[in-house]
Amino acid sequence: MSEGDKRVFISYAREDRIFAHQLGELLKQRGISVAGDLDTAFGSDLSAGLRRQIEDATALVLLIPSQTTANRNSIWFEAGAAKALGKPVLAVLPPGRDAGSTELPTDLAGLLVLDADRRSLDSVADTLVHAVPAEQRQIIAAD
Fold first, then answer.
1. C or N terminus of the chain, fewer CB within 10 Å?
2. Where do the TIR domain residues begin and end (predicted)?
């Protein structure tokens, strides 16, 4: 199994954009394909573009937004969509964010959360590389 068969969608709030880019770059350096709106323009069909990227990903990396984040419902929606599609959701608490000041929706509350204040960014990326599943390819046998 090559790491190239692993693709993540990073779901994040605008306030976490810099951290999302840093984490995305480390994952790319480790052979993981990264999607999200990090560097993609969808034009007028943003929701369809995001949906395609979530469908194409093998996992979603959720950067947990703060309670005051304006678009946090969009982030929860993306995570819920990934779960509905059977994709693992891997949660990361961005640096400087107090775990007590965040709240996960009940359907996501059981997630293991990687705290970027308690681990180095390299350690977070390494853990994610191991947690992201590779694409399952179907092999059809000829009769």
1. C
2. 8-118
Rounded CA separation 15/70 (Å):
10
Record the tokens describing residue 59, joined without a space: 């996992």
pLDDT digits (tens, 9 = 90+) for 39-84: 455 445 556 777 888 999 999 999 998 888 888 888 888 998 999 9
Please compute, for residue 50, the number of CA atoms within 13 A of its CA located in the half-sphere on the CB side: 18
The pTM for the full model equals 0.82
The count of domains in the chain is: 1
Evaluate whether residue 143 is within a structural domain.
Answer: no
Q: 5 phi and psi, to 5 degrees?
A: -85, 5
Contacts of 83 (CB under 8 A, 6+ apart): 89, 107, 108
Contact call for residues 87 and 57 (beta carbons, < 8 A): yes
Residue 40 is part of a domain; what is its CATH number?
3.40.50.10140
At 6, the amino acid letter reads: K
Range of the domain at 125: 3-131
